[in-house]
Amino acid sequence: MTSPLCLSRRRSVAALTATAAALITPRLQAAEPPRRVLTSFSILADMAREVAPAELEVTALVGVDADAHVFEPRPHDSRRLAEAGLVVVNGLGFEGWIDRLVKASGYAGPVVVATQGVAPRKAAGGHSHGHSHGHRHDGPDPHAWQDVALAGRYVDNLAAGLSARWPSLAEVIQARALAYRQRLAALDASLRTQFSAVPADRRRVIPSHDAFGYFGAAYGVEFLSPRGWVTGSEPSAAAVARLIRQIRDQGVRAVFVENITDTRLMERIAKEGGAQVGGVLYSDALSAPGGPADSYVRMMEHNARTLLQAMTPR
Ligand code: ZN
After folding, report:
1. Which residues make up the environment of ion ligand 1, defined by Cβ < 5 Å?
2. CA pseudo-torsion sign 140, 145, 33, 58
3. Pseudo-torsion of CA 77, 80, 81, 87, nearest 10°?
4. Distance of CA 39 to the CA centre of its chain
5. Which of these ranges, 77-91, 124-138, 147-161, 194-208, has the smallest mean pLDDT?
6. What spacing in Å lies between the alpha carbon of 120 and ligand 1's midpoint?
7. How far is the CA of 67 from the centre of ligand 1 (A)?
8. Could you tell me the distance, in angstroms and rounded to a whole number, from the CA of residue 285 to the centre of ligand 1?
9. What pLDDT score does 6 carry?
10. Rounded to the nearest whole angstrom, what is the distance from the C-alpha of residue 166 to the centroid of ligand 1?
11. Rounded to an integer, what distance in angstroms lies between the CA atom of residue 50 and that of residue 162?
12. Confidence bin at 131 (pLDDT 50/70/90)
């Protein structure tokens, strides 16, 4: 005979079993994610490697010497997202393709936005350039990493995102982030000192690509937008003439090129305007390993050296 007491005991055993299952299931779901950090582009990958301990593998969707603005994800990239433990992006509209890619991949983990908390500058308007498809010129300027002080914010966001995802590694992540922040603070101070030693009227240059607004604001360099400049197609004779006039009128010291611009045309423009071609600046991608800009710190040092050389009379 089954007593009511027995019944209620049986029920409570069933209830206990259900409770135990409920306790176990979330624990299984909270199992440590794959130790793979997938960043959107090479500069972010380098920063993440500085912060992440060796247990975490860090890669980039858009590699060295490649343009993240016009990146077109392929099925292979979708798989990489699906297999990632954490995804890190710049934000501020830099990766116009990321939302679609996350959705297509089925990746359900967090997406760390490295610029979270950065007060964005407005993108320079009035012209377009070779890779303007990716971000709108009336939106925020996404190139915040060009100010080393703001890169400190990237490091904070990376450290917080990585620590939350891999709590067992949090201590070493925080220690590495602190050491990296100290290096960045020293670099920032050194850049400020070097540029402030140059008379202000010499700190006026024309880049081939509107990516240096944050750099200019931080270190007191005037990066003039080439007026009416369209590099997507062959610039008109009138646009070339306007640019030459601008160089003369505004006392521009140097014109800079990137791998996306026609070097011969920029050389001619510089010569006719009485400026020089100051060299190659790296804005949106690192160089290949062993190149002049194969880490974020070396990229900023290279750009500063290149700019300072062009501003200093020989
Ligand atoms: Zn850019």
Report:
1. 211, 284
2. positive
3. -110
4. 9
5. 124-138
6. 14
7. 8
8. 9
9. 44
10. 32
11. 12
12. very low
Strand order in the sheet with 222-223: 222-223, 204-206, 254-257, 276-280
Rounded to the nearest angstrom, the distance between the alpha carbon of 94 and the centre of ligand 1 is: 8
- How far is the C-alpha of 244 from the C-alpha of 248, rounded, in Å? 6
What is the pLDDT at residue 305?
96
Distance CA(83)–CA(313), nearest Å, equals 53
Integer Cα distance of 234 and 280 in angstroms = 21
Tokens 């992440």 found at:
52
Helices (H), the chain: 4-29, 42-51, 75-82, 98-105, 148-165, 170-196, 213-219, 237-249, 263-273, 296-311
Phi-psi region at 290: left, alpha or beta (left = phi > 0; alpha = psi -120 to 50)? left
Mean pLDDT across the stretch 40-54?
98
Average per-residue pLDDT in the chain?
A: 85
Query: How far does residue 208's CA lie from ligand 1's centre (Å)?
Result: 10
pLDDT digits (tens, 9 = 90+) for 255-296: 887 654 567 877 888 899 998 888 889 999 999 999 999 999
Tokens (6 digits) for 264: 């011969």
How much distance in Å is there from the Cα of 171 to the middle of ligand 1?
Answer: 34
CA 68 to ligand 1 centroid distance, Å:
8
For the chain, what's the residue count? 314
Residues 6+ apart with CB under 8 A from 136: 93, 123
Q: Which residues contact 4 (CB under 8 A, 6 or more apart)?
A: none
**How far is the centre of ligand 1, averaged over its atoms, from the C-alpha of 93 (Å)?**
11
Which of 256, 252, 250, 253 lies closest to 303 in space, CA to CA? Answer: 256
Q: Which helix (H) or strand (E) holds 62?
A: strand 57-62
Tokens of 24: 């176990």
